[in-house]
Amino acid sequence: MDLDVFVSAHRAEWDRLDALLRRRNLTGTEADELVTLYQRTATHLSLIQSSAPDPQLTGRLSQLVARARSAVTGTRRASWRDVTRFLTQSFPAAVYRSRRWWVPTALASTALAALLGWWIGTHPEVQSSIGAPDELDALTRPGGQYETYYSSHPAASFAAQVWTNNAQAAAMCLVLGVFLCVPVLWILFQNMLNLGIGIGLMSSAGRLDTFLGLVLPHGLLELTAVFVAAGTGLRLGWTVIDPGPRTRRTALAEEGRAALGMAIGLALVLFVSGAIEGFVTPSGLPTWARITIGITAELAFLAYVYVLGGRAARTGDTGDVEAAERSATVPTAA
């Protein structure tokens, strides 16, 4: 192949492709032309590499083809618009849409924790199986471990540790739900058992009010986030069992993407509850003030879900990525 003749024959096409790539907005005709020139230039690059390799020309065309490929097939970069849409529409809509799973989960779990607390608090033989009398006294007495736990570390590091642990638990609920719900139920039971033990031991010591005064400020929002994660995980697991009118692959892809977004959103919610647990719970504020802060945070989250999330869900937002960014699917009969 005569390289000089080849370059002279196609230089105009390469220059035209370069000019189109420099433009911000293209008409429909220009966009079609760009695709055509990209394909031709890629072919030219292949011919030159195999027949008459020239380092300088190969480098120029390789760069041109890479830019064209990015313009034709490249994905859109995330922007602040995406962040805003996620926080004001996608995340609250996903939580709102899952309410039929996490609200019953919250009610059943709370009832279980209360039942376990009553059982432990009214049965001394159960308490003795948990620990020796001196160990239980070290937990429940004034200034005991249940009280000093929240001030045992500097507030900032304690808040970070709590946030990390809770975010991991929520993420596990979301991810492990795909295994037919069983791991989620186990994680949920472990959380309620720990809460029930605290309720039972402190109530048997006549100090339930102190325990609730320590748990409620951060616990309302924290447990709600855990219940949302668990409910969503259960929903994901049920999708494996019954995908509905969608194919199982499509259903899992849609619910899985929504669950991934919820993991990010719940991490932010748990960051707030961790900050409350690290700075408010061990503070010198009166019990009523600490509980008021916790109730306010909980009501703000519920309003966020039911107002913003409800509005977004009614417009068709499911918490999944935007339709233009999803893979094409084959329609299925309802």
Explain what this protein looks like in three dimensions.
By secondary structure, the chain is an all-alpha fold. The protein contains 13 helices and no strands. Helix 1 (3-21) runs antiparallel to helix 2 (28-51) and helix 12 packs antiparallel against helix 13 (287-314). It starts with a helix and ends in a 20-residue tail after the last helix.
Write the layout of secondary structure elements.
Blueprint: H1 3-21, H2 28-51, H3 55-73, H4 80-97, H5 99-121, H6 124-130, H7 133-140, H8 145-148, H9 155-176, H10 182-204, H11 208-241, H12 248-280, H13 287-314
Helix pairs in contact: 1-2, 1-3, 2-3, 4-12, 4-13, 5-10, 5-11, 9-10, 9-11, 9-12, 10-11, 11-12, 11-13, 12-13
- Distance between termini? 59 Å
The percentage of residues in β strands lies in under 5%
What is the number of helices? 13
| Biggest beta sheet summary | none
Class by SSE composition:
mainly alpha
Rg, nearest Å: 29 Å
What's the average pLDDT?
Answer: 85
SSE sequence, one letter per element: HHHHHHHHHHHHH
Helix percentage range: over 70%
Number of strands: 0
Task: Extract low-pLDDT stretches.
Answer: 323-334
Described by the principal axes of the CA atoms, the overall outline is elongated
